[in-house]
Amino acid sequence: MPFRVPLSSPDIEPADIEMVNRVLETPYLSIGPMIEQFEREWARYTGTHFAAGVSSGTAGLHLAVIAAGVGPGDEVITTPFSFVASSNVMLYQQATPIFVDIDAGTMNIDPNRVEDKIKERRALGKRVKAILPVHVFGQPCDMDALCDIASRYELKIIEDACEAMGAEFKGRRVGTFGHAAVFAFYPNKQMTTGEGGVLVTNDESWDRLFRSLRNQGRDDSGTWLRHIRLGYNYRLDEMSAALGLAQVRRLDRLIEKRARVADGYTRRMAHVPGVQTPYLAPETTRMSWFVYVIRFTPAVDRNAVLDALQAEGIPARPYFAPIHLQPFYRDLFGYREGSFPITEGVAQTTLALPFHSKLGDSDMDCVVETLSKVLAARKHSR
Ligand SMILES: *Cc1c(COP(=O)(O)O)cnc(C)c1O
To answer: Model pTM?
Structure first.
């Protein structure tokens, strides 16, 4: 059956198309005026001194880890409940991601376990260089606790804010807490550039390093075939930057539209037995909804509900599969079921519903009615 509602969708308006078309009428398809303008407006939006556009969120995380001085044998504290990229970037540097289990409510890294883990690794003689927290699904991590730990142990914080553009912790924007932060613009995110990402920092030397690394290790003299370090081609092209510029100018509206959809779901789901709607911490003064993830009570067989929804034409996704249980992480590090029980418990009982800015009332009715029907049918069949 074709899906009755798309799982995700970019929000593209004629003004966005116009911006991209304008680029195509110029000779500047890369390294032109659009990326500069986009970076200026992104830095202003986030509230940082600097922003550097890159070709993906993953590329941005990689460069931030390099800037933090993470190299072979080093360790970085992070969460196993995330998209695989937040941990892979350590492997790119021959460093090791050290996982810390999550808080069952926010599904973000649990700061109470972070300090114990740092002490444990140091006692083993390991070099912990940084903490890489992920603001999962658009809800900020407990940045008070993490910043306190980072300053006491002299660690850098790199925020993976790829799912949390515009979110606020106690009134302060994510992306302004760490030494650097990364946002991403894949088409299912709150705003898109197709592929793309951006690195923000208040440290001018880090910003200069990002610009060199993304551009094949060139220095800022602009000499085309002079390379002063090992770099990459992580540039953001001008079409993508133009789309980003058009989208960031209405990002607050895009975030509001998603919040309206989230509220619509939560209202409709309030009396569906077996379903818990997303938990928001009191410190989350602004949620930036990336996905809408419900949790089932233990009696519900999540996988069976997922299959039944698909059969009814409603797409849904388990979100996330724990990183430590990915086949190559098991092979590399010997992780098994039970290594991070809270992460695994959350991963087994959650489901992301169709969610995007243009989801209408009738779409939400359709999703929630189908979900209720599926849950009721399973209850009676047992
Ligand atoms: C989207 C995302 C990224 C970056 O993804 P790209 O596809 O490389 O832009 C990184 N971390 C998290 C948690 C994400 O959701």
So the answer is: 0.97
